[in-house]
Specification:
By secondary structure, the chain is an alpha+beta fold. Helix content is 31%, strand content 25%. A hairpin with a 7-residue loop joins strand 4 (59-60) and strand 5 (68-69).
Amino acid sequence: MDISRAEQRILHHLAQGGRIEIKREGKTIAEIRCFTRDGWVYPGVDLELFRKLKRKRAIRSSSGRPYRITERGLYLVRSELDNR
């Protein structure tokens, strides 16, 4: 299954230890933020992209914690060199 460039970027951040946090107002999602492993906010996540990743089962949350990458997400993301 192919994933878009934006999905690949987000999954790569999550694979390196990042997380996606959501804030709700009632039952609706008010805000979505993607944090890198260093604590910086990555601006490339919107509601549509978040729902695509959930639909593909690439991310998951358990017990109300932030969303993390799943094994399926690791399979979908192509490896990239980390220039650190």
